[in-house]
Structure to design on (105 residues):
């Protein structure tokens, strides 16, 4: 990314900032879902997007470490990526189920 490089921000710092921001977003979404002020469909969409961003953030952070910690961070990123895919599929299924129920007389 050009802007962080121009400002002198390393990839690891950018990744850490993005990771913390998305953890806060996921925490708020979980709180709202548990309290009942957010639908399951909205929650799954936020989890999907948040998991993808966390995976990206962890891959940025992995540039600052090497050896076993790097392998662990990349493995965690892969886990978040798969979580994003599963949450996205569940979100898509819930959308198609809602649409079918609305169109069926």
């Amino acid at each position: 990314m050009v802007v962080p490089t121009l400002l002198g921000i390393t990839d690891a710092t950018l990744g850490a900032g993005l990771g913390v921001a998305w953890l806060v977003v996921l925490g708020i979404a979980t709180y709202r879902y548990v309290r009942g002020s957010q639908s399951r469909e909205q929650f799954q969409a936020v989890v999907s997007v948040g998991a993808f961003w966390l995976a990206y953030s962890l891959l940025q952070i992995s540039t600052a470490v090497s050896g076993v910690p790097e392998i662990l961070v990349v493995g965690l990123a892969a886990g978040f990526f798969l979580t994003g895919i599963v949450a996205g599929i569940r979100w898509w299924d819930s959308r198609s189920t809602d649409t079918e129920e609305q169109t069926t007389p």
Summary: The two ends are 51 Å apart (CA to CA). Residues 1-65 form one domain. The chain has a mean pLDDT of 86.
